[in-house]
Amino acid sequence: MLTLENLSRRFGENTAVARANLEIPDGQMVGIIGRSGAGKSTLLRLLNRLTDPSEGKIVFAGSDIAQLKGRELREWRSDCAMIFQQFNLVGRLDVITNVLTGRLYTMPAWRSMTQVFTPRERAFAIQALDRLGMAHTALQRAETLSGGQQQRVAIARALAQEPKIFLADEPIASLDPMNAKVVMDALRSINQQDGKTVICNLHTLDTARNYCDRIIGMSAGKIVFDGTPDLLTTSMAREIYGAEAEDFNEGSTSTALPETEAVAAVKEAAAHV
Amino acid sequence: MSDIPMMGSSAAASNTAHSDAVSAFERHRVELRASKRSWTIFALIVFAICLGLSIWISNFYPERLANGVPRIFEYFGTIIPELQWNMLFEGRDADERAVPGSITYWYTDFWTYATLIWETILMAMTATLIGAGMAFVLSFPAANNLAPNSWIYWISRRFLEICRGIPEILLALVFVFMIGIGPLAGVLAIAIHTAGALGKLFAEVNENASSRPVDGITAVGGTWPEKMLYGVVPQVAPNFFSYAMLRFEINVRASSIIGFVGAGGIGQELNRVISFYSDDRVLAVLILVVLTVTVIDLISERIRHRFIGRENL
Amino acid sequence: MTTATFDALTDTQINAVRAAQPGAFGTTWGTIKRWSPLFIAVVYAIVSMWYFDFGRLLDASERVWALLRNFVIWQDMDEWAYRQIYVGISQTLAMAFLGTLLGTLGSLFVGFLAAKNVMSFGIVRQIVRRFLDTLRGIDQLVWGLVFVRAVGLGPLAGVLAIFVSDLGTLSKLYSEAIENIDHKQVEGIRSTGAGPLAVIRYGYIPQVLPVFISQSLYFLESNTRSATILGIVGAGGIGMIIIERFRASLYDQVAFVVLNVLVLIFAIDWLSKRIRLWAIGEQGER
User: Fold this and answer.
1) CATH number at residue C183
2) Residue C7: inside a domain, yes or no?
């Protein structure tokens, strides 16, 4: 059970997250939706402690995560994997080393500094890659992969951490619809088959509806909606996405490949050639 | 595109206002010229004062120059060897004596010079290696995006500034006093200067590195050294290498002159031949130094290009 | 498919993965290849430390402390001949200024001779370029030593050393700037029937002048630094005072002079940065 109590973060005058209260039971798949700038990213970074909270508590397994320092903080980060919008892989290292960095916390310093990995660690990393269908790229440099492939490597790195919680910050915002589906399916399988908590920032409503058990809507740093997908009505969504989305509909936030005019035009052009 | 604002302004101005525009332009032009002219006069006066002061302070009067210039040519006349075409490639004769006019005679002390040049190159290599090592370690705390906290950043920055602020030959002078005449003093002096100069460049490279991989390593629970090694080093290594090679070229030059204060290398011999003799030995050593520096530059350039070429593939 | 936990991984599983993906497991050769650069560097460092007798550092501690003490404890400060020190510093500045000025004037002429698009005689150009290479190949300090031998101790040798080494470097930079100019402007001037000097004056100079000025300013800055050490070989300026007092074991005075020099160098850095920013700003407005 992950509990947030009055969690806030201010950047100067701006309040990115304002007094967030949440209870997330183990094994749930949670989607956080909202406009860009609503504080979704900050909330996730607060959970991993990449950003320090201004006030409030994050309680997990009886300890206050917001107060952790040094080794305990690193232990928490290794228990709480983060998947980034821009993958945040080390481009010039090969894929397997990138996945092996997921085990840095468990390694003694001399081995991490000399990059000596045990066969067990390597086998584990390959298994993690294999689960994402990326084992064949193990020896390539991460920067040579496409965005979708890099995100799958990043998920493999997260798996190598053996975390209790997976945080995913806009994991599919930089991907095309095909890759987005692969990545979301992978997260769903981690949630359902491994029983791990997955908290995922999403900018599209339909993805959240399709994959998540629970949806949290954020607007201007506040949690304005918290419930199952079927409770999320169109008027509720309009409130989350703000007044400017006058002609709001599900499709406008969708990343699925609809037969839009542009696609139709391309197809038509192709037919003429 | 550019005529759109013109059309707009001419449309805005009526015909009667047209002459006003011309006079305004003229007035503006006169003001501009006046201000420009006063700036030019001011700059010229400053320049003339600087020039006058400099000439006065350094006694750089025409008659001194007129006396000096012929002596320069005289001097260069004395250091040119007297080579004779028919003797040029004569070896040593039966008594192991070189024939005057041959290259062998000119370069009698060739092996002394060669040993010293070898020592010079070794000095440059060792100093570059040690200096680059220090710079590597210090460049992470001296990069403002990576420093663990602000006072470590401040200390490492100031330390690097001091290292590169003191000219290496002054450092060498001090080291020669401390540990005696010999190449060790030169190596230390150049290494410290290299640490300062490379440390600043390395820190700038680090500051331009992407923060994303570093965030990634932070998020898996990595320590600060792990963040640097996994998140930053792979990004910056090629740049570091190429800067270190460039510094090696500079250090070969430096180590060839650092012997002037007794800190080893060919400089010591160069200083000796220039100060005590004014004959063809001066030119002999100078030619070897110039050749060494040129060859090292070429080799290092090759290596850099090959390395960078391979990296870009 | 779920991922087995790390600790539950059996040896058979590890071997199965190794069989499927042999490349992902370190090989001996791979390890050697990865570590050899560092290994060579470390071995080289150790061998060179032995070669250069680094052990002497340990024996020197007494003299180090003595010297450091003398650097820090300043005695008889009213007898330090400050006038000489500050005359030395201003001499250094004067040497840098005159040397750079002469170097700039010389390079204005030589730079055009070495530029491909101005100097059409290949032989002349090649000779000029080789000559410049030679000037550049010899360090400024060596020039200082040579000129001290030729014209005697004092700032004249320093000015000449700065002039000669600047001539080598600035001429090359100038000729490159001249070769990189826009030819349409030159053709425009030539088409009016202008003579060769007029072509240079109106076709080339306006384009290259900003580059020339900024490079000369940059050289003025770097020459101020190098002029401080030219005195060590006797070529005038503050360096001469440093080495004289060092030889006379007046270490406290040396420390004071070096501090002054450092302040001067930092001040020049700051000033030159300001001037360059100002110059760029002014050009931006044009």
Assistant:
1) 1.10.3720.10
2) yes
**CA C13 – CA A127 distance, rounded (Å):** 10
| In a shared domain, residues C87 and C134 | yes
Q: Do A128 and C3 touch (CB under 8 A)?
A: yes
Residue A105 and residue B222: Cβ atoms within 8 Å? yes
Q: Total structural domains in chain A?
A: 1
User: For position B313, what pLDDT does the model report?
Assistant: 41
Whether residues C32 and C166 fall in one domain = no
A138 contact C CB<8A? yes
Structural domains for chain B: 109-312 (1.10.3720.10)
Alpha helices in chain C (DSSP H): 11-20, 28-51, 56-59, 61-72, 82-113, 122-137, 140-151, 155-179, 183-191, 196-199, 205-230, 238-247, 251-285
Interface test with B, best of C156, C241, C243 (most B CBs within 10 A): C156
Same-domain status, C98 and C4: no
pTM of the model: 0.82
What are the pLDDT digits (tens) for C213-224?
Answer: 888 888 888 888
**Containing structural domain, residue C33:** 1-59
Dihedral sign for Cα atoms in the order C19, C22, C25, C27: positive
Kindly report the length of chain B.
313
Residue A189 touches chain C, beta carbons under 8 Å:
yes
Tens-digit pLDDT profile for residues A198-216: 999 988 888 888 888 888 8
Mean pLDDT of B61-68: 81
Report CB contact under 8 Å: C1, A193.
Answer: yes
C236 sits in the region (left: phi over 0; alpha: psi -120 to 50; else beta) called left
Query: Pick from B55, B130, B290: which is nearest to C134 by CB?
Result: B290
Same domain? For C243 and C184 the reply is yes
Segment C150-167 shows an average pLDDT of 89
Residues with Cβ within 8 Å of A241's Cβ and at least 6 positions away in sequence, in order, are A34, A35, A248, A253
Q: How far apart are CA B5 and CA B16, in angstroms?
A: 20
pLDDT score at C286 = 35
Kindly list the residues from chain C whose CB atom is less than 8 angstroms away from the CB atom of residue B50: 97
The ipTM (two decimal places) reads 0.83
Contacts of B209 in chain A (CB under 8 A): none
